């Protein structure tokens, strides 16, 4: 089984709809991240969480919100989706407890907003 | 604000060539640097992580070096194979508000043709 899972893998929705993307991990990591990837723009950080009670805005948080329900779960919500939020969304995790703290990524969610 | 640049943006080479991919960053106060591989429409796979106190890391045909003072890292791929075709991304952990968060480059798209 994958260590970092994302649901759904693909989603098509309409402008104005509320959407939730979910991320779960079995790696026991305390830190979790949400990114979006657009063609030619690389990955940009939306929100990150260092533990259940520590949530921080990233570079492009406007229009998004998050919830860290447990150490293993981190959800990203689009309260009212708009077409320019069409992108590939990735969740990532890492451990703060090791100096070799590489990031591990989920498979991504492809979101299309019509 | 940390900025990460990857050159070249795209590269096409015949099988067997040795390659160098470049990653530069504007703020040398980094915690670590990580190289990833991304296949089309897929998630990111970690290749190598170099801690700020290290100069290089090796894994199989891959060697990554880090020169903090000049703000540069290189990923060397020896004896390239068609299976190496993918996009390669680097990410640096830069200081932000007392913690370190990742900043990604836009990637180098590599095609190795038989």
Structural features, described:
- The complex is a heterodimer of chains A (114) and B (114).
- With 114 residues, chain A is an all-beta fold.
- Chain A has strands spanning 4-7, 10-13, 19-25, 31-38, 42-51, 54-57, 65-70, 73-78, 87-94, 104-105, 109-113.
- In chain B, a hairpin with a 2-residue loop joins strand 6 (56-59) and strand 7.
- With 114 residues, chain B is mainly β.
- The model of chain B has no long low-confidence stretch (mean pLDDT 93).
- Classes of the chains: A mainly beta (114), B mainly beta (114).
- Chains A and B meet through strand 5, strand 9 and strand 10 of A and strand 4, strand 5 and strand 10 of B.
Number of helices of chain B: 0
Write down the Rg of chain A.
13 Å
Question: Roughly how many Å is the radius of gyration of chain B?
Answer: 14 Å
Q: What is the number of E strands of chain B?
A: 11
The portion of residues forming beta strands of chain B comes to over 45%
Tell me about the largest β-sheet of chain B.
6 strands, mixed
Oligomeric status: heterodimer
Q: Structural class, from secondary structure content of chain A?
A: mainly beta
Please trace the helix and strand order of chain B, writing H or E for each element. Answer: EEEEEEEEEEE
Tell me about the largest β-sheet of chain A. Answer: 7 strands, mixed
Strand content of chain A: over 45%
Series of H and E elements of chain A: EEEEEEEEEEE
Distance between the amino and carboxyl termini of chain A: 33 Å
| H/I helix tally of chain A | 0
Mean pLDDT of chain B: 93
* Most extensive interface between two protein chains, with residue counts: A-B, 26 and 22 residues
Inertia-based shape of chain A: globular
- Low-confidence blocks of residues of chain A: none
Q: How many runs of DSSP E, i.e. beta strands of chain A?
A: 11
């Amino acid at each position: 089984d994958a260590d970092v899972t994302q649901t759904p893998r693909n989603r098509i929705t309409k402008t104005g709809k509320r959407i939730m993307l979910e991320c779960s991990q079995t790696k026991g990591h305390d830190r979790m991240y949400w990114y979006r990837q657009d063609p030619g723009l690389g990955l940009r950080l939306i929100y990150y969480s260092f533990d259940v009670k520590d949530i921080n805005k990233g570079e492009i948080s406007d229009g998004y919100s998050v919830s860290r329900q447990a150490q293993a779960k981190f959800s990203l919500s689009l309260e009212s989706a708009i077409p320019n939020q069409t992108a590939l969304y990735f969740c990532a995790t890492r451990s703060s407890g090791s100096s070799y703290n590489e990031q591990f990524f989920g498979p991504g969610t492809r979101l299309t907003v019509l | 604000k940390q900025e990460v640049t990857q050159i070249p943006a795209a590269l096409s080479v015949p099988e067997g060539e040795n390659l160098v991919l470049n990653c530069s960053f504007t703020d040398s106060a980094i915690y670590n640097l990580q190289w990833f591989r991304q296949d089309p429409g897929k998630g990111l796979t970690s290749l190598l992580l170099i801690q700020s106190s290290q100069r290089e890391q090796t894994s199989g045909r891959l060697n990554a070096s880090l020169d903090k003072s000049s703000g540069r890292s290189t990923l060397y791929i020896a004896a390239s194979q068609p299976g190496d075709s993918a996009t390669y991304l680097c990410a640096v952990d830069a200081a932000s508000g007392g913690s370190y968060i990742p900043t990604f480059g836009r990637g180098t798209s590599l095609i190795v043709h038989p």
